[in-house]
Amino acid sequence: MRTIKRMHILAGMTLMLIGCLSAYSQENPKLSDPEVASVAVVANQIDISYAEIAMKRSKNKDVLEFAQRMLTDHKAVIEQAVALVTKLSVTPKDNAVSQSLLEGAKETKKMLQKASKKKFDQVYIDNEVAYHEAVIEAIKNLLIPESENSELKELLTNVLPALEAHLEHAKMVQKKVSKY
Amino acid sequence: MKKRLLVPGFLVLFVFMGMGYTALNKTPEPKTHIVEIKKLKFIPAELTVKKGDTVIWINKDFFPHDVTEEKKGAWSSSTLQKGESWKKVITESSDYLCNLHKVMKGKLIVM
Ligand SMILES: [Cu+2]
């Protein structure tokens, strides 16, 4: 019962995120490159912040290994993004999409902090599956179409296979965790 | 007349035998193959080699990867950062993966 409730909350949040991003893209189809860069950096920072909580709270080897991977890989993406905007002399610009991502992340972090010790791994990994699905959608349907600079587009395109690998990895861990 | 032909005839025969002899005993030089790690894939994902050939893996991604034998972890490169490479002499067929991104898989087939 609790699991079902939790899954509904997560599914709801994912839909909200996707809904929010796509509604925004329809209302306001012009997301400038500095804004795209900001969304990309924020989306990566958020997953790093979730991983940091997991590194503190989890005792599960598979979860810790996954969280460590998220820290390393999402930091690598941010480094690439920073290198690119520096090269292009662009400053990432805060915008409604970045803000809505951060708002959503605030709630999720609360949820991760509040989850019982016993449930933490499940809550964390369920959120990782949902979050990666949402971010993959957002990159494909919003950020890539919105970016004008070809190198920015290329960077986003190159990040997709990593996010897809993370999603599959998260699903593998999810299967193991739900057995405990 | 006959004798004069016989000597060069033998010479030619010896030369041919010599060539045949070296050709039979010369094992082909081991080859070096390259597998690129790019966009979270091993390219080519499946590679056929001869026993004793060398395979070099090069990480072209900005994510770290490794190359690890899949079934028992019998061999593994250490973590390869962007631009780093690792080589191994291949003696048997094996399935391998990136232990950091376990969905990245590759296969070596020894003929
Ligand atoms: Cu990898």
From TrEMBL, chain A:
Keywords: Signal
InterPro entries: DUF4142, Ferritin-like
Keyword Signal part of the UniProt annotation: yes
Gene3D superfamilies (alphabetical): 1.20.1260.10
Parts forming coiled coils: none
Residues in DUF4142 domain copies: 32-172
Signal peptide: 1-25
PANTHER family: BLR2558 PROTEIN
Name assigned to this protein: DUF4142 domain-containing protein
Organism placement in taxonomy: Bacteria, Pseudomonadati, Bacteroidota, Flavobacteriia, Flavobacteriales
UniProtKB/TrEMBL annotation, chain B:
Segments forming a coiled coil: none
Protein name per its UniProtKB record: Blue (type 1) copper domain-containing protein
Gene Ontology MF, one: copper ion binding
Species of the source: Leptobacterium flavescens
Keywords for the protein's UniProt record, in alphabetical order: Copper, Metal-binding
Domain Blue (type 1) copper, residue spans: 35-110
Any matching Pfam family: Copper-bind
Gene3D superfamilies recorded: Cupredoxins - blue copper proteins
Source organism, top-level taxon: Bacteria
